[in-house]
Amino acid sequence: MTFSISLTVNGVRRDVELDNPRVTLLDLLRERLQLTGTKKGCDRGQCGACTVLVDGRRINSCLALALSHDGADIRTIEGVAEGGHLHPVQEAFIAHDALQCGFCTPGQIMSAIGLIQEGQTDGDPERVREGMSGNLCRCSAYAGITEAVLDAQKKLAEAGGTDAGRRDAA
Amino acid sequence: MTSEISLSTVPAHTRHGSNIGQPLTRRDGVLKVTGAATYAADNHPEGMLFAVMATSSIARGRVVALDVDAAKAHPGVVDVMTPAHKPELAMDPDAKTNPFMFRLDLLQNDLVRYAHQPIAVVVARSLEAATEGAALLAPRYEEEPARVGLDADESFEPAAIGIGSPARIERGDVEAALARAEHRLEATYETPAQYHNAMEPHAIVAAWDGDTLSIDTPSQGLAMAQGRLAGLFGIAPENIHIRSPFLGGGFGSKGLVSGPQVLGIMAAKLVGRPVKLVLRRDQMYGPVGHRPPTRQTLRLGFDGEGKLSALHHHAKTVSSTFDDFFEPAADISHTLYAAPAILTSHEAVRADIGTPLFMRAPGEATGSIALEGAIDEAAFACGMDPLAFRLKNYAEVEPISGKPFSSKALRECYRQGAERFGWSRRTIEPRKMRDENGYLVGWGMGTATFPALMFQAEARAVLRRDGSGVMETGAHDMGQGAWTALAQIAADALGLDLDRTEFRAGTSDLPDAGIAGGSAHTATAGMAIHNAGADVVAKLAALATGDERSPLFGAGNAGVVAREGRLHRRDDESRSEGYGDILARAGLAQIEGKGSAAPDPSVQETYAMHAHGAVFAEVKVDPDLGQVRATRLVGAFAAGRVINPRMVRSQFYGGMIWGISFALHEHAVMDRRSGRILNADLAEYHIPVNADVPSLDALMIEEHDPHVNALGIKGVGEIGITGSAGAVANAVWHATGVRVRHFPIGLDDLLVPAAA
Amino acid sequence: MNDFDYIRPATVPEAVAAAAAPGAAYLAAGTNLLDLMKGGVARPGRLVDVTRLPGLDAVEWLEDGGVRIGAMVRNADLAHDPRFAASFPAVAEALLSGASGQLRNAASVGGNLLQRTRCAYFADLDSACNKRVPGSGCDARAGENRLHAVLGWSDACIATHPSDFCVPLVALDAVVEIEGRGGRREVPLAELHRLPGDAPEKDTALEPGDLIVAVRLPAGAAAFAGHARYIKLRERTSYAFAVVSAAAMLRLEGGVIAEARLTLGGVAAKPWRDAWAEQALAGARPDEEAFRRAAELALAGARPSGDNAFKIELARRLVVRALALAASGTPERVPALPGSPFSSLPELHHDV
């Protein structure tokens, strides 16, 4: 039995035939849609490397059944920068060296974008640390990550939007 | 064949002029923040199948049945690789021809030597089918009682520890010195098994084409991996092409090719199609190495003024039943404190575990937390400030060898670190400091140290007529910043701006850059790059200075200097010529040079070479509930020349957080009966989260070392964990008055009676 | 993960009918179920996806002042619902102390109630576990059991219930609305989860096909809003299950405790509410002596199930702390580190 679902991934409608119901959203993205920016670190909701935005909210895609998200709007790390312009969160991650090996970075960035949109941190570093604690980083770039989120949040607020304030990468 | 790997850079990342020492942002940053950086498991060649390992659930015994039929009957399953059905290897995986060659579990028989040992591989058309196929194998075992932990069996003195170091080294007569000592202190510390847990699980995508093999897999040592695989498969090393542009963390676990990676290649051979094999997180707790547990006894003799007269550091550790890796935990005591009599000794047992391996600061990390704890205990026994005690025993020469240090700015690390931290306001007595909220406050410190190592490496340099240059070496970026720091060295070596320098790394067809381990990669690969640059520039200079049409004619090689794409006469900088002009006149499209690097035996003979540092930690402890938070760490590190302070700071931070984790968080919990690890995941194997790390500071203390290598580089990757773990543990004691000598320290350790 | 039939019913009755079949399981967000399926602990032959069922995703304020929370309301949405958080601050704090931001965005209210134990032997298919395989034994008893139950356990099972959310809900007399084959019924949350006894395989009072459709808090629950905390001890600052947790709520009148609520988490197979302790607090002054007495009563029946005697003393101290914090007043906003004893370290809030 096959299942047909339709997703909007990074603004593009994707009609997907699944030969099997057990495909997770993460494996759908990585192994069937070739969107490998989203990473699998634990596959059990314990590390955050697979974080994507589903209908604007950050979730662990490894614990999401693809079928159950039929019709959803998905945003992955590949859809964050637009037209050659990095998102302020991406820029801030580079500027604050909020990454080392880079493997957790897509999840960190998606989580940071989600966190900022949730609007609960008020620029408080402790709330940012808590809010980013679902994303493990074994290289331990946490200090830079916290700085980057605070910095990006501030710049986005100054730009007057939550997520709209893209700036030139240079 | 040239490298496929290239990096996009954004203009803000480049800088004109001297590149070494500049805090450039990561050149691979854009790739990594956009998801475009390709890790091994991101590859998907045409026709690829998915392989999933089945691993053993017993620690010792043999597999007596696998339900291969059930697995094969699952829709999508293509084949099941078992000891009875697998490609032949050219070499016994249990053969060992050098100390860097570790025995691998490649389905050579039905024996089980540890839990999570691979026992079969299922190949299928989808990841889901392969995963379920592996579950359907439902192995049956003949199980034998597992031997577990530090008391698993009779202990013995290993023939060698680490890589070829003697298990026992003594200078002076420690027993006599202890007998004479005014004060004696004996303390036993235990450290747990820890697992690297790089965020990227080991992964491989392997494709065979006749006798040539193309693989994507993370590697901290491409040339060694190539050699190992060539031996196993009986093909020429040059027939193996490995791509490893980005490692999702290594920490030692990707230094040597692991069994599961080889199984992926075998599976591809078996099915005649490209295969991807990625470890599940739980499968990383067995076949890819770990830091073994230790039990360390420190015996110190000292006088009433805190002067050490004797230091005995004894370490017991665990290796597997089938291979030799012995954590050299006691050897940290060779270099740090100036006791006239020092003895380091090791003993080991064998248990039914995967072979332990190098894990970030192997030996140094485990040894440091015990030594720094004992030193802290001795300082308090003398009523001394722990920093004063350490200064009292400051080693002016390396204690174990008597050799002078090639450089040692530790005193300055102590001074600046203590000042930044505010150490002078610390009480000697524990449990005396509180904050405004009533939490217990503790301040502790530790000395950091790591040897300044170098391995062998080669590099190839090219200058082109268009004024650009290329530097090639098969270096590995596992997050430390090789793409950036080595490119900075390359640009300076070529006398070019960074944006005119193409740096190629991360594939096995490039010159061997040596292993990315031992905190030696920047020094090793960097020196090869430096020398390759010098070679090509010298060749270019020879062209110019021997050509009477050049403004540099007659200057001689020593008489020119390369800068920003031009050669200048040293004696008259106004006379210069661009690289492109020199090559054009010579009718050359490009000119090539080579360089190599290796440790200098005469320098090693003469000097003790180490990086040093001092770490100061503050913890807060809930006085009733025992919950601990490491609220502030300041580290001051002297590690020779800093190539890129932005990346070096991140390395120090990372190491310091590993120190917090060592002291407070991570440990593998093993069932004593089954030998299975019960927290083989990331939910219960606790590595720190962001909220565990509120405040870090890392000072880079200037240090010029004329001996370690021409660039003066020591290495920064591992030193951060040393000192830090002990500093946090000592801070917990200072906060609570409870000396916990096993790690991680848990809240149950700190539930002192409320009246205390 | 095993293969399964996937059904997405359009109505609650359809869902109940589909899930009543042997081997069927409801799929909400899947944050626990998919994890269990990946580990082979759960192998349902049929998944009944309830995420699109109508009417399950609302927070409704009832005329009597109570609140009805639809089973598909996501944990994060409930915690950040301003009126809900103001009325039931300890529930919001408990929700926000659990899991991670990503998991809370996905996880549902109903699913949170039904998460299964985190006992490592339950998760390990090769260990004996009466909860997973009835009658197979309990390897936790003589195993690594530092974090296991100290209350209400049996020789058959010493596992604990991992939920944070349920702890204050039980304290507040939450009621669970269930649709089953026999129609709708209500069960007090305190009676939903079962102690193991000799049937630890049965976590709850639910029958096959039963679907939790809502959780209700009674009108009186908001009366504790001014003095309500959830405190959670864990082995790292965030993203870890509780070693021990406590929900403490007080209604103060004229400087005296008029009514108290006290429930412990991480100590038993269900949230552990103690009526004796609550009664002892009623009428007392909110001081340390009263809190200590309550702590003694709450843990009076506790006994170690293994190497976990420390949890008893720790739980006593936590009760005292949680009551003291509740007495000092609910913070205006859920603290930066929800549930943490370090939730108020002002110097760490500076800009880095």
TrEMBL record, chain A:
Residues 3-80 form the 2Fe-2S ferredoxin-type domain. Signal peptide: none annotated. The keyword Metal-binding applies. It comes from the Bacteria. CDD domains: fer2 (cd00207). Keywords: 2Fe-2S, Iron, Iron-sulfur, Metal-binding, Oxidoreductase. The keyword Iron-sulfur applies. This is (2Fe-2S)-binding protein. It comes from Ancylobacter mangrovi.
From TrEMBL, chain B:
InterPro entries: Ald_Oxase/Xan_DH_a/b (IPR000674), Ald_Oxase/Xan_DH_a/b_sf (IPR036856), Ald_Oxase/xanthine_DH-like (IPR016208), AldOxase/xan_DH_MoCoBD1 (IPR008274), AldOxase/xan_DH_MoCoBD2 (IPR046867), AldOxase/xan_DH_Mopterin-bd_sf (IPR037165). Residues 1-22 have a biased composition (Polar residues). One of its GO terms (molecular function) is oxidoreductase activity. Signal peptide: none annotated. Residues 1-25 are annotated as: Disordered. Transmembrane segments: none annotated. SMART domains: Ald_Xan_dh_C. Residues 34-145 form the Aldehyde oxidase/xanthine dehydrogenase a/b hammerhead domain. This is Xanthine dehydrogenase family protein molybdopterin-binding subunit. It comes from Ancylobacter mangrovi.
Automatic annotation (TrEMBL), chain C:
It comes from the Bacteria. Keywords: FAD, Flavoprotein. The keyword Flavoprotein applies. Residues 1-222 form the FAD-binding PCMH-type domain. The keyword Flavoprotein applies. PROSITE patterns: FAD_PCMH. It holds the Pfam family FAD_binding_5. Transmembrane segments: none annotated. PANTHER family: XANTHINE DEHYDROGENASE FAD-BINDING SUBUNIT XDHB-RELATED, XANTHINE DEHYDROGENASE SUBUNIT C-RELATED. This is Xanthine dehydrogenase family protein subunit M. It comes from Ancylobacter mangrovi. The lineage of its organism: Bacteria, Pseudomonadati, Pseudomonadota, Alphaproteobacteria, Hyphomicrobiales.
